[in-house]
Amino acid sequence: MNNSLTNTARLLWAALRALLVLTLVTGVIYPLVVTGIAQGLFSDQANGSEIKSDGKVVGSSLIGQPYNLPLKKGQETPEPDLKWFQGRPQNGLGSNSVNTQYKLILSGATNRSADNKDLIDWVTAAKAAVVKDNSVNGYTVKPSKVPADAVTSSGSGLDPDISPQYADIQVHRIAEKNGLSVAQVQKLVDDHTESRTLGFIGEPRVNVLELNIALKELAAKS
Questions:
Q1: Residue scoring higher pLDDT (140 or 157)
Q2: Closest listed residue to residue 58, CA positions, set 49, 50, 66
Q3: CA 128, chain centre distance (Å)
Q4: What is the pLDDT of residues 123-132, one digit of tens each?
Q5: DSSP secondary-structure letter at 52?
């Protein structure tokens, strides 16, 4: 009987020591080491790939954000603020009534097939809006020139980038709305166009938030 109690107590003490050691190693030491390495070598990525403007964090280079006008009375869908470059559509994302600061809480695609009527209607309406919004005096956008990313959301719905083609067709509108020359805005787009990762992964892209921050700075100087 005594031997049985002794063995049980020994096993429990061994288990408790193992628990304490593993808790210390995996719950304290390991997280601190990983955090230290991340902050030392990849501080930008570890902190959320933050983008700052005027010394304040205004977003992340990994998450897109809308550039819309305030809702008018009776409006359910805000109109785009056309003085800014616009990102990809955000169809398919859910909303919530709890976190009202960040209205988008779900990440995901529309999950509709290519022949789905709702998707076809969205794309058709989006293309018409892109043509209308970006056609200004002396420049008309042809429907055939509207790229796919201008009328479809990404797989996550949070894509922060657009194609150089989509940025290019917005150049004339941006120039007109901000009192800039087309050449100035086009140079802005060219300067913020990133090539394929490692030269072969993905497609050339333009980060909309970074581009709009540069646009704000350029407009302020003019």
A1: 140
A2: 50
A3: 24
A4: 999 999 999 9
A5: E
